[in-house]
Specification:
Layout: E1 13-17, H1 23-31, H2 41-46, E2 53-57, H3 75-97, E3 102-104, E4 113-115, H4 117-121, H5 125-133, E5 144-148, H6 161-169, E6 174-178, H7 185-193, E7 197-201, E8 217-222, H8 230-238, E9 241-246, E10 253-254, H9 257-262, H10 270-273, H11 283-290, E11 293-294, H12 298-313, E12 320-323, H13 329-345, E13 349-352
Parallel strand pairs: 1-2, 5-6, 5-7, 7-8, 8-9, 12-13
Antiparallel strand pairs: 3-4, 10-11
Helix pairs in contact: 3-5, 6-12
Protein backbone atom coordinates (compact mmCIF):
# COMPACT_ATOMS: atom_id res chain seq x y z
CA UNK A 1 0.00 0.00 0.00
CA UNK A 2 2.95 2.36 0.55
CA UNK A 3 3.57 2.39 -3.19
CA UNK A 4 -0.08 2.83 -4.10
CA UNK A 5 -0.32 6.47 -5.17
CA UNK A 6 -4.12 6.54 -5.16
CA UNK A 7 -3.87 6.48 -1.37
CA UNK A 8 -0.66 8.37 -0.82
CA UNK A 9 0.15 10.79 -3.65
CA UNK A 10 3.59 12.42 -3.75
CA UNK A 11 5.03 9.50 -1.77
CA UNK A 12 3.23 10.17 1.49
CA UNK A 13 4.02 7.62 4.16
CA UNK A 14 1.78 5.75 6.55
CA UNK A 15 2.65 4.54 10.04
CA UNK A 16 0.72 1.78 11.74
CA UNK A 17 1.01 1.74 15.54
CA UNK A 18 -0.20 -1.33 17.37
CA UNK A 19 -0.12 0.44 20.73
CA UNK A 20 0.30 3.92 22.20
CA UNK A 21 4.06 4.65 22.28
CA UNK A 22 5.95 6.38 25.06
CA UNK A 23 5.77 10.20 24.88
CA UNK A 24 9.39 10.63 23.81
CA UNK A 25 9.09 7.97 21.14
CA UNK A 26 5.81 9.47 19.96
CA UNK A 27 7.47 12.85 19.43
CA UNK A 28 10.24 11.24 17.38
CA UNK A 29 7.62 9.49 15.27
CA UNK A 30 5.81 12.77 14.63
CA UNK A 31 9.09 14.54 13.85
CA UNK A 32 9.98 11.92 11.26
CA UNK A 33 6.89 12.73 9.19
CA UNK A 34 6.76 16.54 9.34
CA UNK A 35 9.33 19.21 8.41
CA UNK A 36 8.18 21.39 11.34
CA UNK A 37 10.38 21.21 14.43
CA UNK A 38 8.58 19.51 17.31
CA UNK A 39 10.07 20.14 20.74
CA UNK A 40 7.28 19.01 23.06
CA UNK A 41 3.84 17.46 23.02
CA UNK A 42 2.34 20.88 23.82
CA UNK A 43 3.53 22.16 20.45
CA UNK A 44 1.37 19.54 18.78
CA UNK A 45 -1.68 21.40 20.10
CA UNK A 46 -0.49 24.94 19.41
CA UNK A 47 1.30 24.62 16.06
CA UNK A 48 -0.11 23.99 12.58
CA UNK A 49 1.85 21.03 11.28
CA UNK A 50 2.02 19.58 7.77
CA UNK A 51 2.03 15.81 8.05
CA UNK A 52 3.47 13.58 5.34
CA UNK A 53 1.90 10.48 6.85
CA UNK A 54 -1.30 9.03 8.19
CA UNK A 55 -0.75 7.71 11.72
CA UNK A 56 -3.26 5.05 12.64
CA UNK A 57 -3.43 3.96 16.28
CA UNK A 58 -5.12 0.67 17.12
CA UNK A 59 -6.92 0.27 20.41
CA UNK A 60 -6.53 -3.04 22.21
CA UNK A 61 -10.31 -3.33 22.04
CA UNK A 62 -10.04 -3.29 18.25
CA UNK A 63 -7.74 -6.31 18.03
CA UNK A 64 -9.14 -9.61 16.77
CA UNK A 65 -8.43 -12.72 18.84
CA UNK A 66 -5.90 -15.06 17.25
CA UNK A 67 -6.38 -18.31 19.13
CA UNK A 68 -9.74 -18.08 20.93
CA UNK A 69 -13.02 -18.01 19.01
CA UNK A 70 -14.85 -14.80 19.84
CA UNK A 71 -18.48 -14.92 20.86
CA UNK A 72 -18.69 -11.67 22.81
CA UNK A 73 -21.62 -9.31 22.49
CA UNK A 74 -20.23 -6.44 24.57
CA UNK A 75 -20.30 -2.88 23.28
CA UNK A 76 -16.65 -3.01 22.24
CA UNK A 77 -17.34 -5.85 19.81
CA UNK A 78 -20.23 -3.95 18.25
CA UNK A 79 -18.12 -0.78 18.04
CA UNK A 80 -15.25 -2.69 16.46
CA UNK A 81 -17.61 -4.26 13.91
CA UNK A 82 -18.83 -0.84 12.83
CA UNK A 83 -15.30 0.56 12.63
CA UNK A 84 -13.87 -2.33 10.60
CA UNK A 85 -16.83 -2.42 8.24
CA UNK A 86 -16.48 1.32 7.65
CA UNK A 87 -12.76 0.89 7.01
CA UNK A 88 -13.37 -2.05 4.67
CA UNK A 89 -16.04 -0.12 2.79
CA UNK A 90 -13.91 3.03 2.44
CA UNK A 91 -10.90 1.01 1.33
CA UNK A 92 -12.85 -0.82 -1.37
CA UNK A 93 -14.55 2.36 -2.52
CA UNK A 94 -11.23 4.15 -2.91
CA UNK A 95 -9.56 1.32 -4.81
CA UNK A 96 -12.45 0.45 -7.09
CA UNK A 97 -13.49 4.04 -7.80
CA UNK A 98 -10.13 5.78 -7.72
CA UNK A 99 -10.81 8.18 -4.86
CA UNK A 100 -8.20 9.55 -2.47
CA UNK A 101 -7.85 8.89 1.23
CA UNK A 102 -5.70 11.92 1.98
CA UNK A 103 -6.07 15.29 0.25
CA UNK A 104 -5.17 18.91 0.95
CA UNK A 105 -7.96 20.98 2.47
CA UNK A 106 -6.44 24.10 0.84
CA UNK A 107 -3.77 24.76 -1.74
CA UNK A 108 -1.57 26.55 0.78
CA UNK A 109 1.52 24.36 1.43
CA UNK A 110 1.35 24.86 5.22
CA UNK A 111 -2.28 23.89 5.58
CA UNK A 112 -3.39 20.90 7.58
CA UNK A 113 -4.42 17.71 5.83
CA UNK A 114 -7.80 16.11 6.21
CA UNK A 115 -8.71 12.46 6.09
CA UNK A 116 -11.52 11.43 3.75
CA UNK A 117 -11.82 15.01 2.43
CA UNK A 118 -13.00 14.05 -1.03
CA UNK A 119 -15.08 11.17 0.28
CA UNK A 120 -17.05 13.42 2.60
CA UNK A 121 -17.75 15.93 -0.18
CA UNK A 122 -18.50 13.42 -2.92
CA UNK A 123 -22.27 12.93 -3.48
CA UNK A 124 -21.58 9.51 -4.96
CA UNK A 125 -19.64 8.18 -1.99
CA UNK A 126 -22.61 7.35 0.20
CA UNK A 127 -24.43 5.60 -2.63
CA UNK A 128 -21.26 3.63 -3.36
CA UNK A 129 -20.93 2.81 0.33
CA UNK A 130 -24.50 1.55 0.55
CA UNK A 131 -24.02 -0.53 -2.58
CA UNK A 132 -20.91 -2.17 -1.13
CA UNK A 133 -22.46 -2.87 2.26
CA UNK A 134 -25.84 -4.01 0.99
CA UNK A 135 -26.40 -7.76 1.34
CA UNK A 136 -26.55 -8.88 -2.27
CA UNK A 137 -29.38 -10.86 -3.82
CA UNK A 138 -27.32 -13.43 -5.66
CA UNK A 139 -27.99 -13.70 -9.38
CA UNK A 140 -28.97 -17.05 -10.81
CA UNK A 141 -25.92 -18.67 -12.33
CA UNK A 142 -22.65 -20.28 -11.47
CA UNK A 143 -20.86 -18.85 -8.43
CA UNK A 144 -17.50 -17.21 -9.10
CA UNK A 145 -14.87 -19.16 -7.14
CA UNK A 146 -11.33 -17.83 -6.69
CA UNK A 147 -8.52 -20.18 -5.66
CA UNK A 148 -5.39 -18.33 -4.50
CA UNK A 149 -2.25 -20.47 -4.50
CA UNK A 150 1.01 -19.68 -2.73
CA UNK A 151 4.08 -18.60 -4.65
CA UNK A 152 6.58 -21.24 -5.70
CA UNK A 153 9.43 -22.02 -3.27
CA UNK A 154 7.39 -20.89 -0.28
CA UNK A 155 6.04 -23.11 2.54
CA UNK A 156 2.46 -24.28 2.98
CA UNK A 157 2.11 -25.61 -0.55
CA UNK A 158 -0.78 -27.81 -1.69
CA UNK A 159 1.06 -30.97 -2.73
CA UNK A 160 -1.74 -32.29 -4.96
CA UNK A 161 -2.41 -28.88 -6.47
CA UNK A 162 -3.35 -30.19 -9.92
CA UNK A 163 -5.80 -32.69 -8.45
CA UNK A 164 -7.48 -29.95 -6.42
CA UNK A 165 -7.79 -27.71 -9.49
CA UNK A 166 -9.28 -30.51 -11.58
CA UNK A 167 -11.81 -31.35 -8.85
CA UNK A 168 -12.94 -27.73 -8.65
CA UNK A 169 -13.22 -27.51 -12.44
CA UNK A 170 -15.66 -30.43 -12.37
CA UNK A 171 -18.06 -28.50 -10.11
CA UNK A 172 -20.81 -26.21 -11.46
CA UNK A 173 -18.78 -23.07 -10.73
CA UNK A 174 -16.78 -20.45 -12.60
CA UNK A 175 -13.22 -21.00 -11.36
CA UNK A 176 -10.31 -18.57 -11.49
CA UNK A 177 -6.82 -19.44 -10.19
CA UNK A 178 -4.27 -16.85 -9.14
CA UNK A 179 -0.94 -16.29 -7.42
CA UNK A 180 -1.16 -12.79 -5.98
CA UNK A 181 2.59 -12.20 -5.78
CA UNK A 182 2.73 -11.10 -9.43
CA UNK A 183 -0.41 -8.92 -9.30
CA UNK A 184 -0.80 -5.31 -8.19
CA UNK A 185 -3.02 -4.40 -5.25
CA UNK A 186 -5.67 -2.99 -7.58
CA UNK A 187 -5.77 -6.21 -9.60
CA UNK A 188 -6.03 -8.29 -6.44
CA UNK A 189 -8.89 -6.22 -5.04
CA UNK A 190 -10.84 -6.35 -8.30
CA UNK A 191 -10.51 -10.12 -8.40
CA UNK A 192 -11.59 -10.62 -4.78
CA UNK A 193 -14.44 -8.10 -4.95
CA UNK A 194 -16.03 -10.05 -7.82
CA UNK A 195 -15.64 -13.36 -5.98
CA UNK A 196 -18.52 -15.32 -4.46
CA UNK A 197 -16.38 -18.05 -2.86
CA UNK A 198 -12.73 -17.34 -1.93
CA UNK A 199 -10.41 -20.31 -1.25
CA UNK A 200 -6.84 -20.15 0.03
CA UNK A 201 -4.50 -21.72 2.57
CA UNK A 202 -4.00 -20.25 6.03
CA UNK A 203 -1.76 -17.21 5.77
CA UNK A 204 -1.58 -13.57 4.77
CA UNK A 205 -3.73 -14.12 1.67
CA UNK A 206 -6.68 -14.60 4.02
CA UNK A 207 -6.58 -10.87 4.80
CA UNK A 208 -8.15 -10.34 1.36
CA UNK A 209 -11.49 -11.30 2.90
CA UNK A 210 -11.74 -7.59 3.78
CA UNK A 211 -12.39 -7.00 0.06
CA UNK A 212 -15.15 -9.61 -0.27
CA UNK A 213 -18.75 -8.55 -0.66
CA UNK A 214 -21.00 -8.99 2.38
CA UNK A 215 -22.43 -12.53 2.51
CA UNK A 216 -19.69 -13.92 0.27
CA UNK A 217 -17.91 -17.10 1.41
CA UNK A 218 -14.30 -17.69 2.37
CA UNK A 219 -12.84 -21.20 2.73
CA UNK A 220 -9.61 -21.46 4.74
CA UNK A 221 -7.39 -24.52 4.24
CA UNK A 222 -5.43 -25.64 7.33
CA UNK A 223 -2.48 -28.08 7.53
CA UNK A 224 -2.24 -30.97 9.96
CA UNK A 225 -2.85 -29.96 13.64
CA UNK A 226 -1.99 -26.27 13.18
CA UNK A 227 -5.05 -24.02 13.39
CA UNK A 228 -5.84 -20.42 14.31
CA UNK A 229 -9.23 -18.72 14.40
CA UNK A 230 -8.15 -15.13 13.76
CA UNK A 231 -9.57 -15.09 10.21
CA UNK A 232 -12.76 -16.80 11.35
CA UNK A 233 -13.21 -14.01 13.89
CA UNK A 234 -12.33 -11.42 11.26
CA UNK A 235 -14.89 -12.86 8.84
CA UNK A 236 -17.58 -12.70 11.52
CA UNK A 237 -16.81 -9.03 12.11
CA UNK A 238 -17.09 -8.21 8.39
CA UNK A 239 -20.21 -10.30 7.73
CA UNK A 240 -18.39 -12.80 5.50
CA UNK A 241 -19.50 -16.43 5.71
CA UNK A 242 -16.65 -18.62 6.87
CA UNK A 243 -15.92 -22.29 6.13
CA UNK A 244 -12.78 -24.32 6.66
CA UNK A 245 -11.00 -27.54 5.81
CA UNK A 246 -8.19 -29.13 7.79
CA UNK A 247 -5.86 -32.02 7.11
CA UNK A 248 -6.57 -34.64 9.78
CA UNK A 249 -3.84 -37.11 8.81
CA UNK A 250 -0.14 -36.62 9.48
CA UNK A 251 0.64 -38.99 6.60
CA UNK A 252 -0.67 -36.27 4.24
CA UNK A 253 1.78 -33.67 5.56
CA UNK A 254 5.38 -32.91 4.58
CA UNK A 255 7.59 -31.14 7.13
CA UNK A 256 10.83 -29.22 6.63
CA UNK A 257 13.12 -29.50 9.63
CA UNK A 258 16.31 -28.48 7.78
CA UNK A 259 14.81 -25.17 6.71
CA UNK A 260 13.61 -24.46 10.24
CA UNK A 261 17.00 -25.37 11.72
CA UNK A 262 18.71 -22.67 9.61
CA UNK A 263 16.38 -19.98 10.97
CA UNK A 264 15.89 -21.38 14.47
CA UNK A 265 15.47 -18.56 17.00
CA UNK A 266 14.97 -20.37 20.34
CA UNK A 267 16.71 -23.05 22.42
CA UNK A 268 13.86 -25.54 22.19
CA UNK A 269 15.09 -29.03 21.33
CA UNK A 270 14.33 -30.77 18.05
CA UNK A 271 12.44 -33.52 19.87
CA UNK A 272 10.14 -31.02 21.58
CA UNK A 273 9.56 -28.97 18.43
CA UNK A 274 8.56 -32.05 16.46
CA UNK A 275 6.23 -33.33 19.18
CA UNK A 276 2.72 -32.29 20.11
CA UNK A 277 1.07 -30.25 21.50
CA UNK A 278 2.29 -27.12 19.72
CA UNK A 279 3.90 -24.59 22.05
CA UNK A 280 2.02 -21.45 21.02
CA UNK A 281 4.53 -19.28 22.92
CA UNK A 282 7.51 -20.60 20.94
CA UNK A 283 8.10 -19.41 17.36
CA UNK A 284 10.12 -22.49 16.34
CA UNK A 285 7.36 -24.84 17.46
CA UNK A 286 4.72 -22.78 15.65
CA UNK A 287 6.74 -22.38 12.46
CA UNK A 288 7.55 -26.08 12.23
CA UNK A 289 3.88 -27.09 12.29
CA UNK A 290 2.65 -24.05 10.38
CA UNK A 291 5.03 -24.28 7.41
CA UNK A 292 4.19 -27.81 6.31
CA UNK A 293 3.05 -28.80 2.84
CA UNK A 294 -0.30 -30.59 2.71
CA UNK A 295 -2.17 -33.08 0.59
CA UNK A 296 -5.73 -31.78 0.40
CA UNK A 297 -8.51 -34.37 0.38
CA UNK A 298 -10.37 -33.50 -2.81
CA UNK A 299 -13.45 -35.38 -1.60
CA UNK A 300 -13.62 -33.35 1.62
CA UNK A 301 -12.85 -30.07 -0.13
CA UNK A 302 -15.52 -30.77 -2.71
CA UNK A 303 -18.05 -31.21 0.10
CA UNK A 304 -17.04 -27.87 1.69
CA UNK A 305 -17.33 -26.03 -1.63
CA UNK A 306 -20.70 -27.64 -2.33
CA UNK A 307 -21.85 -26.46 1.11
CA UNK A 308 -20.84 -22.90 0.22
CA UNK A 309 -22.68 -23.16 -3.10
CA UNK A 310 -25.78 -24.46 -1.33
CA UNK A 311 -25.65 -21.60 1.19
CA UNK A 312 -25.34 -19.17 -1.68
CA UNK A 313 -28.41 -20.61 -3.40
CA UNK A 314 -30.34 -20.26 -0.12
CA UNK A 315 -28.98 -16.71 0.30
CA UNK A 316 -27.51 -17.60 3.66
CA UNK A 317 -30.76 -18.99 5.07
CA UNK A 318 -30.37 -22.65 5.96
CA UNK A 319 -33.39 -24.68 4.91
CA UNK A 320 -34.43 -27.83 6.71
CA UNK A 321 -36.48 -30.92 6.02
CA UNK A 322 -37.92 -32.49 9.19
CA UNK A 323 -38.39 -36.27 9.26
CA UNK A 324 -40.96 -37.50 11.79
CA UNK A 325 -41.09 -41.32 11.91
CA UNK A 326 -44.40 -42.75 13.05
CA UNK A 327 -44.84 -46.01 11.11
CA UNK A 328 -43.56 -49.42 12.17
CA UNK A 329 -39.80 -49.93 12.07
CA UNK A 330 -39.48 -51.34 8.52
CA UNK A 331 -41.49 -48.48 7.05
CA UNK A 332 -39.43 -46.00 9.09
CA UNK A 333 -36.24 -47.17 7.34
CA UNK A 334 -37.82 -46.76 3.92
CA UNK A 335 -39.17 -43.35 4.90
CA UNK A 336 -35.79 -42.27 6.22
CA UNK A 337 -34.04 -43.23 2.97
CA UNK A 338 -36.65 -41.31 1.01
CA UNK A 339 -36.20 -38.29 3.28
CA UNK A 340 -32.41 -38.38 2.69
CA UNK A 341 -32.95 -38.41 -1.08
CA UNK A 342 -35.48 -35.55 -0.97
CA UNK A 343 -33.25 -33.43 1.31
CA UNK A 344 -30.30 -33.86 -1.04
CA UNK A 345 -32.40 -33.02 -4.09
CA UNK A 346 -33.81 -29.85 -2.43
CA UNK A 347 -30.46 -28.82 -0.87
CA UNK A 348 -31.89 -29.00 2.62
CA UNK A 349 -30.54 -30.16 5.96
CA UNK A 350 -32.35 -33.25 7.21
CA UNK A 351 -33.55 -33.03 10.82
CA UNK A 352 -34.42 -36.25 12.67
CA UNK A 353 -36.34 -35.94 15.91
CA UNK A 354 -34.85 -37.28 19.12
CA UNK A 355 -36.44 -40.49 20.37
CA UNK A 356 -35.87 -43.02 23.10
CA UNK A 357 -33.47 -45.82 22.32
CA UNK A 358 -36.13 -48.53 22.07
CA UNK A 359 -38.01 -46.61 19.35
CA UNK A 360 -35.07 -44.97 17.58
CA UNK A 361 -34.29 -45.65 13.95
CA UNK A 362 -30.65 -46.32 14.61
Amino acid sequence: MLDFKVFFPDHHRVLLLDRTPEPTKFLSVVQSVTPTAVGSSRELLNESLVFKAAVIGLSRDALVAEIVLERGQEWRFRLRRKALRLFSDSLKTSILHGRLFVTNSHKHPNSRMRLFDELDESPDFYSDRKALLRRPSWPIGRPRVTLVLREANTPRQIINENEVIQTLKNLPITLSIHRFGSLSLVEQVRIVHKTDIFITTHGAAMTHLIFLKPAAHVIELFPFVFKKVIYQNFAAVLGVRYLQWQNMRQSRAKFYWNELEMTKSTNMSKERIQSLPIDWYNMDSKNYWRNQDTIVSVFELRHVVETAVKNRVNNGKTKFLIFMPWEQFNNQIVGFKSACAVAKMLHRTLVVSYMKLNTCLF
